[in-house]
Each structure stands twice: as structure tokens, then as C-alpha cells.
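Side project, low priority. Logging it here so it doesn't get lost.
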Amino acid sequence: MSKKVLILSGSPRKGGNSDILCDEFMKGAEESGNTVEKIRVAEKKIGYCRGCYACKGTGICAIKDDMAEILQKMIDADVIVLASPVYFYSIDAQLKAVIDRTVARWLEVMNKEFYYIMTAADGEKESLETTLACFRGYADCVEGAKEIGVIYGTGVYEKGEVKATKAMKEAYEMGLKV
């Protein structure tokens, strides 16, 4: 059965390591017959949540930017891939803004399969655990969320270094299994 897959690439660097892993995941998922869309979050206009709760009861955010379209795609997706480089043991600001802005319609984001992609200069998986906890914290708020897979791109700093790691194969193969 074909699924609708939404990849949210948080990398501020086009062709950065986490972005490259998103492309590999997408390649595998498409080859398996799924409909896949990748959104490079850094290329969208997304303001931070102001906590004004103008959205309460309406689902309409007071901030008029690209987030309404992204949120609708999150609601419509069967699978959500969250990808981020690790900055100070956490997800980057671009992707965090997206997660926070789902508050306008967060109860409609439900029954999703989640995959997480993380990259870091540090070579130890343990250095990515706080970032993974951030992803899982969001999924804990999504009714019916299921974590399906995690990709650790460790020991990569310079743009493109991830191409020489096992994470490339893991991303492709994980995409194939969607």
C-alpha cells in the first residue's frame, strides 16, 4: 500500500549531511511506490510561535507565513520524517520552529509513522540522544504516533562527509521499507 511521506529537512545547508540522508531516504521510499515530498525548512518563511493562542478554537495561526501549508501536509501525511543536524545536543532552530507551530492544529496531527534522521560531528551515538529525545517528545504529543526508525549520522561535519558512512545505506534501506 502506497503511503504519503513527508520529509522535513531541518538542515540550514542545502546538500548538508542530514539533507543528503533525507535524499537517500526519499530515493528508497519512492522506489517502494510511495508518494514523497521533501521540504527544506530553511527555504520556507516560518516564524516562531509567539504563544498568543490566537489559534485556540480556530486552528488559524495569527502568523501569516508558510507554516499553514506545511502543517496541512503534516496532517495529510501517513509518514513524517524529521531530520536535523545536532546543534548543542538538540535539534536546530529551523525545525524546532516548525514543531512549535503545529500547536495551531496539533490534535489533527495523528496516527503517524515517524522516522528520525540526525547528523553530528561527534562520533558517538550518545551525543545524539538529547536530539532524539526532542523528536520523541514531539511524537509523544501526537496521538497514535509510532516510531519506526532512527538514523544516526555520526562523525560528520564537513558538507557531504556523510556520503562515506553506513548511514547512507541505512537511510536508503529504511526508505525502501516504508
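Brief comment: The chain has one domain: 4-176.
Revisit when time allows.
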